[in-house]
Amino acid sequence: MRLWLTLISALVVSLTAAAQDPYARVREGDRMPAFEVEMTGGERLSSESLEGKVVWICLWASWCPSCRKEFKRLASNEEFAALREHSGFVFLPIAREENSATVVAWLRKKGYDYLSAVDPERSTYELFAEQEIPRNILVGPDGVVVHHSSAYSKTALGEIIDKAEKMLN
Fold first, then answer.
1. Residue 8: is its pLDDT beyond 70?
2. Is residue 12 part of a domain?
3. Is 71 among the domain residues?
């Protein structure tokens, strides 16, 4: 019986390890790395200034089809709109390998009112992952990552919204 339990435990551990994102540099339970980004309006924002808030970092690009789907989905989500109104919540999209002019033009064209940061050299992105977008990282007010997912998924977006709501209530 012990042999079976040992084998089952080993299988569960190996499946869990395989399911983890091989490109993530920050995982759930890790502290958010220190960074500073430039917003499309020219001002600078640091991770330090986000302390005490629930922060949803969305690593994206305007040319990415999955990122476009994700932004469209978020724009029509009432729970997400309510989160953005909460003073303890920050939605921080960070456009990978794009400049402010490109990002502002795309956001305006689509009618999104999100402020975004730009990461033309990918230096902030590389603190969180090696590749793949969109990436969503939810950080609690204590600076600890509570969710990290890659690729567009309605389910993952719902999980992020639920986790953020719970931390804010």
1. no
2. no
3. yes
Strand-strand pairing, 44-46 and 145-150? unpaired
Give the residue from 110, 56, 105 showing the smallest Cα distance to 84: 56
Cα 55 → chain centroid: 8
Which CATH number characterizes residue 42's domain? 3.40.30.10
Per the CB < 8 A criterion, the answer to whether 136 and 58 are in contact is yes
If one counts the domains in the chain, the total is 1
pTM: 0.87
What CA–CA distance (Å, rounded) separates 71 from 107? Answer: 10
- Which own/partner contact pairs does 85-88 have at CB distance under 8 Å and 24+ positions apart? 86/168, 88/52, 88/53, 88/54, 88/141, 88/168
Assigned domain for 109 exists: yes
